[in-house]
Amino acid sequence: MAALQIKNIPTGPGDDFKIDASYAWGDTKQVISTSAASPNLAMFSGTGLPGVYQSVGIGVVPDAIYLPVTSGGDGSLKLTKSWGVRGAFNHNWDPYRSTSLFGSATAVRFKSTVGDLTTAKGISANYVTGTAVSADFTCNPDFNTYQLGVITRWAPVKNLTFSADVMWFRLDQETTGAATLTPAAPKPSATYEYRDQEAVSLLVRAQRNF
Fold first, then answer.
1. What is the pLDDT of residues 83-135, one digit of tens each?
2. How many Å apart are CA 17 and CA 11, to the nearest integer?
């Protein structure tokens, strides 16, 4: 991991720019994670395919993939590679108001070849063993995520801050086709199309520190 912070930039007093980049092999939490653990992503949206209930985008972030010899693998751990970059620029309009623009891009890669059970990508095909899939289905667990957001804060008095935060998120996943899946409730067991997903969120907050 490497990080850089630039202060005293000409856009205004107290403004700064931060950027960091990270790479991990077998330790995905160092690149894509929440405060608790590495998240497994599942996002749903609409679809135009006939007979298909919805579309789904999936991103899993294990440190490694394993398949025993008795199931066709070679019995070794296949480590997952991941890398990402994050950056933010903060501007102070005055002593009471500030705005930050931030974004990130991450990638998770499963080593080697789709269909080869001695590689991480090949082992991923076991996720859909016994599942009805479309003729054009391909299982490739590689994925990317992208985020872009802006937050504006107003602190009229000490220890009281009002803020509004807008963020765009995209899950760019590589699995294609459709499969009959049984996701967690409230989603029903049905046929889903694998497709990239996007979301936009708005968070408005009032924070008082004591």
1. 999 999 999 999 999 999 999 999 999 877 666 777 777 777 666 666 788 88
2. 11
Nearest residue to 27 (alpha-carbon basis) of 56, 3, 1: 1
CA distance 56 to 93: 41
* Residue 36, Ramachandran bin (φ over 0: left; ψ between -120 and 50: alpha; else beta): alpha
Spatial separation of the C-alpha atoms in residues 75 and 50, rounded to whole Å = 41
Give dist(CA 155, CA 205) in Å, integer: 12
Can you tell me the distance from the alpha carbon of 178 to that of 104, in angstroms, rounded to the nearest whole number? Answer: 29
pTM (2 d.p.): 0.88
- The one-letter code for the residue type at 172 is D
Looking at this protein, which amino acid is placed at residue 161? T
Beta pairing class for 160-173 and 143-157 = antiparallel
- Cα within 13 Å of Cα(209), Cβ side: 7
State how far the Cα of 144 lies from the Cα of 104, in Å rounded to an integer. 11
Give the whole-angstrom CA distance, residue 71 versus residue 51: 33
As a whole number of angstroms, the distance between CA 105 and CA 144 comes to 7
Q: What residues are paired with 157 via a beta bridge?
A: 160
Instruction: Check the CA dihedral 45-47-179-187 and report its sign.
Output: positive
